[in-house]
Amino acid sequence: NNYFKIAVLPGDGIGPEIISESIKILDVIAEAFQCKFHFDYGLIGAEAIFKTGNPLPEETLKICKESDAVLFGAIGDPVFDNNPEAKVRPEQGLLKLRKELGLFANIRPLKTYASLIDKSPLKREIIEGADIQIFRELVSGIYFGEKFTDPEGEYAYDICKYSREDIIPIAHMAFQEAQKRKKKLTLIDKANVLDTSRLWRKTCQEIAPEYPDVELDYMFVDNAAMQLILNPKHFDVILTENMFGDIISDEASVIGGSIGLLPSASVGEKNALFEPIHGSYPQAKGKGIANPVASILSVAMMLDHLNLHAAADKLRQSVEHAIENKYVTIDLNTKQYYSTSEVGSFIADHI
Amino acid sequence: NNYFKIAVLPGDGIGPEIISESIKILDVIAEAFQCKFHFDYGLIGAEAIFKTGNPLPEETLKICKESDAVLFGAIGDPVFDNNPEAKVRPEQGLLKLRKELGLFANIRPLKTYASLIDKSPLKREIIEGADIQIFRELVSGIYFGEKFTDPEGEYAYDICKYSREDIIPIAHMAFQEAQKRKKKLTLIDKANVLDTSRLWRKTCQEIAPEYPDVELDYMFVDNAAMQLILNPKHFDVILTENMFGDIISDEASVIGGSIGLLPSASVGEKNALFEPIHGSYPQAKGKGIANPVASILSVAMMLDHLNLHAAADKLRQSVEHAIENKYVTIDLNTKQYYSTSEVGSFIADHI
Ligand SMILES: CC(C)[C@H](C(=O)O)[C@@H](O)C(=O)O
Ligand SMILES: CC(C)[C@H](C(=O)O)[C@@H](O)C(=O)O
């Protein structure tokens, strides 16, 4: 198979700018690796609310369901963030999309680049050689439990719920990934306080015997937030629930020196979505300063998912080549820097 | 008033060792500043479970309620952590104590010590001059909402609930502290996803006009977990809910170079409790290597609370004197180090 339907959702803020670099890359890949990508564009987020009133229009969902992969930009707009009373919010679009497509596992690889190591706020000896893969559960927990605000606005609640079925598939995925790596899996939870965390611990304990070569350990989330900075090399594969994963994986992004470099894949039984970890960065919108690398590396994860491994490897090499040659955006080098589209083109040309 | 009733709860792990250094300090303070401390000891945590079956015996609660201040060591035992089925757990003792005493605000000051700055995993230029005060809500949220595990063990839930009344008192406290400092208050939440976070945002927005000199800003918890490491000097006073506060404040401890240095105060209308941020550190138990400074600095916060400001200042100076003279435990200097009790005595002697 060399024909792929890609749903493209640029979204808000810098989303459209970085996505157009990813499309540029895919056009070059198509030529170099004799395959064809058909792009279907869809609205999502604030953009979709402004145009249709709905953060996830039906048409967008349809495009995504019929796609071989979804390429996602970013979501979020300060207009909504500063208005706690807004009933319709951009984030609902992304959350509903994750749920509807059943994207239960969010996978975030973290590594360091030799030439960028000194960009990190952490000392070289702390991060050099760190290599972590985070598995964050993405369609359950407090994000999707019942929510309620009483009409008088006196109180509110959010329910964090997990069932064994929510945990088992992603736990297997994480164990299997650990088998391919350093064979160490750390479950991050708050089992000394939360019932849901104890369910996670118990479920992982039950599965562990199927992976006798993997060492499973547990860490409370407060301690993990500290250990990630004190000793990131302690970690190999991390498994955690939705909310803790949101916090921990953004925190862990400092290890690599820039959140502008970090890709992610969100996968389910049928569909998969690829997006940079960074958000919509509204302050940078339209200025041509956004770093396209996180989105481009998300494309590499997408190519792997489509079994185009040679193309994925070539793309990753081209990104590394750009970084090693200091062909980067302003977030990585304030003295000598290139625009979003210059960096995209440099990477494309190298393929 | 120069007579104070102090409830002393050493707890688990290294708790007893560090608490005896704090008592040593209080004995010296009593003499030097002409006051008297009466100590009532109580059981709590794993220690209390082993001896009485109850992580917070009635007697302990009574001692605390009648005290002018509670001096708390640490809680937690691996026996329970690795058993998700345990019904009675050490942490329940501390959580119940916080709730029963109405200790709604957990206050954690964070600063750097000139002589320890190079101990931090973060680069000197990132942390030098960082000075943050965290206000964590301590008696509501997901810690205290209804919890449930179904008898078949198929699913579980934890409810995060907040009312305006839970938020208003600690918000005022945080605004007032900001007024005394750099006049900047950052509310950390996840208002793009959680109803409870939107209630926090709305409530703080309502209170803000009473503090026109304080600049209130908002930050999503995932972004905050990143910004704390990228740019800790951005923060002055932080206000947040219980679970996020647990994570963020442990994470922020890396700024100061060691969690072994960080004190906290948990205050309510009637009572107050003082404890180090670090936990029971069971691996170090009985080895004489635990750092007593976090507990000793918690004593300083307690002295301030008892209006013994001169004693508190003197104690803080003595701690700084010990640190500047490298009279520290192994966590701060692996080449030349002193035992828990040597460090305690050195500080006591300086008072
Ligand atoms: C935009 C937001 C809802 C989202 C999340 O919290 O999951 C984002 O932070 C992420 O991590 O993808
Ligand atoms: C021991 C545990 C229940 C506690 C908490 O999570 O509050 C601890 O981590 C703390 O921060 O004081």
From TrEMBL, chains A, B:
Q: How does it assemble?
A: Homodimer.
The record's top EC class is oxidoreductase
Reaction catalysed by this enzyme: (2R,3S)-3-isopropylmalate + NAD(+) = 4-methyl-2-oxopentanoate + CO2 + NADH
Q: Which UniProt keywords apply?
A: Amino-acid biosynthesis, Branched-chain amino acid biosynthesis, Cytoplasm, Leucine biosynthesis, Magnesium, Manganese, Metal-binding, NAD, Oxidoreductase
- What molecular function terms (GO) are annotated for this protein? 3-isopropylmalate dehydrogenase activity
Q: Which residues bind substrate?
A: 98, 108, 136, 222
The record's similarity note reads: Belongs to the isocitrate and isopropylmalate dehydrogenases family. LeuB type 1 subfamily.
Q: How is the cofactor bound?
A: Binds 1 Mg(2+) or Mn(2+) ion per subunit.
Which residue ranges does the record assign to the Isopropylmalate dehydrogenase-like domain?
Answer: 5-347
- Keyword Manganese: yes or no? yes
This protein's source sits in the domain of life called: Bacteria
Task performed by this protein:
Catalyzes the oxidation of 3-carboxy-2-hydroxy-4-methylpentanoate (3-isopropylmalate) to 3-carboxy-4-methyl-2-oxopentanoate. The product decarboxylates to 4-methyl-2 oxopentanoate.
Q: Which cofactor does it need?
A: Mg(2+); Mn(2+)
Matching Pfam families: Iso_dh
The protein here is known as 3-isopropylmalate dehydrogenase
| Coiled-coil boundaries | none
Binding residue positions for Mg(2+): 222, 246, 250
Question: What EC number(s) does the entry state?
Answer: 1.1.1.85
The record, for SMART domains, names: Iso_dh
Where is it located? Cytoplasm
In chain numbering, where does the site feature Important for catalysis fall?
Answer: 143, 190
Pathway involvement of the protein, from the record: Amino-acid biosynthesis; L-leucine biosynthesis; L-leucine from 3-methyl-2-oxobutanoate: step 3/4
